[in-house]
Amino acid sequence: MRSRRLLAGLTALVLVMLLPTVLQAAPRVVVSIPPIHNLVSGIMEGVAEPVLLVPGGASPHDYALRPSDMRHLQSAQVVIWVGRDLEGFLERPLARLPESVTKVTLLKDADLVRHELREGGIWDRHDHGHGHDHNHGHSHSHSHSHGHDHHHDVDSHVWLSPENAARIVRHVADVLADKDPDHADRYGENRDRILARLETLDATLQARLEPVQGHPFIVFHDAYQYFERHYGLTPAGSVTVDPARPAGARRIQEIRQRIQDSDAICVFSEPQFRPAIVETLIDGTGARTGVLDPLGADLPAGVESYFQLLENLGQSLVDCLSQP
User: According to the UniProt entry, which residue ranges have a biased composition of type Basic and acidic residues (predicted)?
Assistant: First the structure.
């Protein structure tokens, strides 16, 4: 009897000693922005929870890393970001991480559909001297090119296309399965479930947005090209290319003229910036206002929030553009 109790005690002790090893088997994953974090959370569901750097409501355009963010990066085994033209604040910290850390730069690594920047005229201009690191560079056409290291002429808002979301999910699932083969089956199951849901949502949005395809609108900053192109929408311009910089008087006059010339039905602001300028722009034009959120500022973490992000964009556009 005593020997049985001793054996049971030793077995329990061995299990307790092994438990931390089992719990730590999943890689420590850090993700830059909410929409990508939501997709990665879905892939890792049932395995572990990735860490998010840029919280909801903040903008990657001007984010500053906190000490806690630096600690997360230093302990990471996988870091997933879009690229330096969107999250410029990450470029130097990532360069200082050891080679053993897997750094997934989605714009470069994930074989995405990519569109070149729209600049000049109705899309504002890219001011190469103001020190803002978002999407600089002039265009050399490669709307659907892949694998280039030099992507400064590419629009970074790649997650707003369900096609790109599917490509991101496939690529990240492969990376995680390679890094963590013990959970490869789970990553694969989660990937397939997300892909099926994306396909269903895409068909729903196609049908919902078709009636407003010819209705022109103005966005606060040019963040929606992937969504607009995918669903055949009719954008008429942006207020500013750099959401951290206020538009000047000349730009305001240009946009007011553009609203009138294009018969733009709506001018959309964003929750991250809430620009009072939108009210000035539409005054006396007959245009309405709406809100588009490219990041899902108020949505909780998790893959459901990625689907909700696209749902919200579609519904906001339909609500504003469908009004008589």
Answer: 124-136
